[in-house]
Design goal:
This protein is an alpha+beta fold. Helix content is 51%, strand content 15%. It has helices spanning 7-24, 28-34, 42-47, 66-79, 81-101, 104-115, 231-267, 279-307, 313-339, 349-358, 367-378, and strands spanning 121-124, 140-144, 147-158, 165-171, 181-187, 193-198, 209-220, 224-225, 269-270, 273-274. The two termini are 30 Å apart. It binds flavin-adenine dinucleotide.
């Protein structure tokens, strides 16, 4: 067993860390306070190849492995979780399903502009009435001649107002329930496609999230991903991979908050010494560091397993996502505690990390859903 990164992976980590420190960190607090999307960072992210990391060179991507991808997402989240989620979504839930399930024609048409960052992508599974119970979705896709007509709405979709291409899961045969669901590539310029107003979120304020309405939205029949009835397989296979990205985002958030806490604990004095010299604070730091290390190892194991195309990816990525997201929540809470009143102020980064961490146990499958996936796998059901 080898825990060493290879030289390419180390280089990616250093490159992204440098970009995050020099280009992202300077505006991170302002963008959060103003709730302003990270559009000014998109050209730089594209130039580094971070908007098409998993796509092979032949389709205009960087052709990185999943370990490098996880390292990059962690480094972005360590400074700005909003940037990390924007990057993770276009890579792993938009480009990845096109790569895994798309025809050669679809790959040639959609992957190069997405991978080069000319277009941003998203993924539409959740609806106002269905999240965890995704199979009960109501958005309908009916085939009429050479087109599918979409009707319905999606909720809580990341990368909307700036997005151009969305992988949309809709029902082509409601009588078959989850087995009658299909996946489509949908362009936001399609007739009948409308972005709904942005959500006012607790955190991730520099990322965009909104609903989408489909009102007789017309898409070419050839934009189906795979065949009719394959939609749930497309969605679940996609999420098995993308949860590694959310686990990595969670590790990055925890690491960012941890570093702030260590710094503050060395500066703040009470009872005549820095608070880091009080054993209670030292033990909190020890616990935080240990849990981050465990979360990172689980995330890297899942990423390496995906690279090796090994068995048990679904369980490994669910375990990593569950543990890392719960760790992010705990570590950020402790980081706020270590800051005392200052941790409750939006002048301090830990307040932002605390808000940003909260969603990681909710999106791309809640912690309860991860436990269901893991239990099913462990119990052989
Ligand atoms: C900022 C943000 C960005 C998002 N981006 C996207 C996106 O890009 N694309 C997309 O499709 N979706 C996106 N989502 C939606 C997200 O994936 C869903 O919110 C999530 O899957 C949970 O669904 P829900 O909110 O409907 O909760 P529900 O499914 O209604 O669950 C409510 C509660 O009940 C629990 N629960 C549900 N069923 C069970 C059960 N059987 N046993 C035990 N507990 C259960 C849940 O764990 C949760 O605690 C995003 C959400 C947020 C907040």
């Amino acid at each position: 067993m080898n825990f060493e990164l290879n030289s390419d992976q180390k280089m990616i980590r250093e490159m992204v860390r440098d970009f995050a420190e020099t280009k992202i960190r300077p505006g991170v607090m302002k963008r959060d306070h103003e709730g302003r999307f990270i559009d000014e960072l998109i050209p730089g992210l594209a130039e580094l190849g971070l908007l098409g990391m998993l796509v092979p060179d032949a389709y205009g991507g960087s052709g990185l492995d999943n370990v490098s991808y996880a390292l990059a997402i962690e480094e972005l989240a360590r400074v700005c979780p909003s940037t990390a989620v924007t990057v993770s979504v276009t890579n792993s839930v938009c480009q990845d399903p096109i790569l895994m399930f798309g025809s050669e024609e679809q790959k040639r048409k959609y992957l190069p502009p997405l991978a080069k960052g000319e277009w941003i992508g998203g993924f539409c599974l959740t609806e106002p009435g269905s999240g965890s119970d995704a199979g009960s979705l109501k958005t309908r896709a009916e085939k009429r001649g050479g087109k599918y007509i979409l009707n319905g709405s999606k909720a809580w979709i990341t990368n909307t107002h700036y997005g151009k291409v969305f992988v949309v899961i809709a029902s082509t045969d409601p009588s078959k329930g989850a087995k009658g669901v299909s996946a489509f590539i949908v362009e936001s310029s399609s007739p009948g496609f409308e972005f709904l107003p942005l959500e006012h979120k607790m955190g991730l304020k520099a990322s965009v999230t909104s609903g989408i309405s489909f009102d007789n939205c017309e898409i070419p029949a050839e934009n189906i991903l795979g065949t009719e009835g394959m939609g749930m397989r497309v969605a679940l296979t996609t999420l098995d991979g993308s949860r590694i990205g959310i686990a990595a985002q969670s590790v990055g958030i925890a690491q960012g908050a941890f570093e702030e806490a260590v710094k503050y604990a060395g500066q703040r004095e009470t009872f005549g010494k820095p608070i880091k010299d009080h054993q209670a604070i030292g033990f909190m730091i020890a616990e935080m560091g240990t849990e981050i290390e465990a979360a990172r190892l689980m995330t890297m194991k899942a990423a390496a397993l995906r690279d090796a195309k090994g068995p048990g990816l679904s369980r490994a990525s669910s375990m990593a996502k569950l543990f890392a997201s719960e760790t992010a929540k705990k570590v950020c809470d402790a980081a706020v505690q270590i800051h005392g009143a200052y941790g409750y102020s939006n002048e301090y980064a830990v307040e932002r990390f605390y808000r940003d961490a909260r969603v990681t146990t909710i999106y791309e499958g809640t912690s309860e859903v991860q436990r269901m996936v893991i239990a099913r796998s462990l119990l052989g059901r």
